[in-house]
């Protein structure tokens, strides 16, 4: 839609947030440095075996080897940065006396930058995303990067801003585009706190869990619900709405998880009728 400017009014330019500009510049610089460093061992492999490659099959094998060496080198360097860089401690940090953001904001931004380099490398992540799920990198990346979970349903469709602050048990069902964040920032300050989801819980599609949320075992967070910071959802509870509120207790036993599809929709509808959704 075209904007209309009245006579005498000056058109305001849309400027990118300085914080976002700094984050993008940092991402570019670190990505270029990591890429350059990872290319070095790949170039060594190429220079060593290229003179001996005299068939098409040998060249194909050499290219595949260089790609694997490059991706492994990139991931190892990224893991080294993750180990060296400290993480901000959990807690609430108000603005400083001069009005500037707390110092932990800069440290959090660096951690978010590493997470971005982990999940959005400067090339198609189809190879690196698989290598981190296989030995020998799997255990190290799960420990240092997170998320800390034993659930197999955690996939790329789930959005986690702070993976190292997510702790999920076994058999947790994460719905499509569900969202988890371990930090939140406004004019009152910044809250950094882990998100905990216990065993056999169901997080509905497009649901949002904010810092400090604790979801009990066999509980259901309904579709598109927003769970406020520091909210405790007890075991066998159905919560729905924005902000999410308890709708009802779920039956004990396996019926809780088997009712995820029907219970989530019914709970959301009931929440709307009660004015909680």
Textual characterization of the structure:
With 277 residues, this protein is α/β, with parallel strands linked by helices. The protein has two domains: 128 residues, no CATH class; 131 residues, 3 Solenoid (UDP N-Acetylglucosamine Acyltransferase, domain 1), CATH 2.160.10.10. The chain is 39% helix and 17% strand. The protein is built from seven helices and 17 strands. The strands form four sheets. Strands 2-4-9-12-15 form a five-stranded parallel beta sheet, with no helix packed on it. A five-stranded mixed beta sheet has the order 5-10-13-16-17, covered by helices on one side. Strand 16 and strand 17 form a beta hairpin. It starts with 17 loop residues before the first helix and ends with a helix.
Please identify the oligomeric state. single chain
Question: What is the domain tally?
Answer: 2
Q: Which radius of gyration do the C-alpha atoms yield?
A: 23 Å
Structural class, from secondary structure content? alpha/beta
